[in-house]
Write a structure and sequence with these properties.
The chain contains 12 helices and no strands. It is mostly helical.
């Protein structure tokens, strides 16, 4: 599931994008909050370290990257992408307890961010806390619904919400949501490719239980 995991990690919190897109995406999910350029720079440096050292193959480098993310979060405490990268890197090096603490920290700053609630659910699931995990997945859908109500044409939010239905409900519900999006964007070839990929390359190959179990496993 390695290739699929990389794709889904991007759907959670951990998108490595250019500074302009990164700022725009964080503003979408955190409302009016502005992310400072110095924080974006620190996060970008951490991502560069991760990619240059092939991530999990160099623990010392990841620890350096985590320190940079600490600085980014200190500068901009509502910086979702920095939290996501820190959670990802801590999990890769096996520090699940601290990663879980970072999720809690992020939820204090960003209590209505659906991706953070979803990630909280994944961690509960990996700990065998199924009831708590389910509640977190349902919260993620609830907050996506709020976002979409404000902007019904936010494709990223619609796409991610559709995928999260696999966890909040079941695979059939997720497939149904993606098919609705296929009709909505039937004249957009690029979005059709993304939706087809989700249906035929991701949802067709995973289950909720398998995903939770195998995500981040090296």
């Amino acid at each position: 599931m390695k290739k699929i995991s990389i794709i889904i990690v991007a759907l959670l919190l951990f998108s490595c994008v250019d500074n302009k897109k990164q700022k725009a995406k964080d503003n979408t999910l955190t409302g009016k909050y502005q992310i400072k350029e110095s924080a974006i720079k620190k996060n970008k440096q951490a991502e560069i370290i991760y990619f240059r050292t092939e991530g999990s193959k160099n623990k010392d480098s990841l620890i350096k990257a985590i320190h940079l993310l600490d600085e980014a979060i200190k500068i901009s405490p509502k910086y979702r992408v920095a939290y996501g990268n820190k959670i990802n890197f801590l999990t890769i090096i096996g520090n699940l307890k601290e990663a879980s603490e970072v999720i809690n920290q992020a939820l204090v700053e960003l209590p209505e961010d659906p991706k953070i609630h979803f990630t909280r659910g994944i961690y509960y699931g990996k700990e065998g806390l199924k009831e708590q995990a389910q509640k977190s997945f349902e919260k993620a859908i609830f907050y996506y619904d709020k976002l979409i109500a404000q902007n019904p044409n936010d494709f990223d939010a619609l796409y991610e919400r559709a995928f999260y239905m696999l966890f909040a409900k079941n695979k059939e519900s997720a497939v149904k949501e993606f098919k609705i999006l296929q009709k909505k964007y039937k004249n957009d070839s690029q979005k059709q490719k993304e939706l087809d990929f989700a249906l035929n390359r991701v949802l067709a190959k995973i289950t909720k239980e398998k995903f939770i179990k195998e995500l981040w496993n090296q």
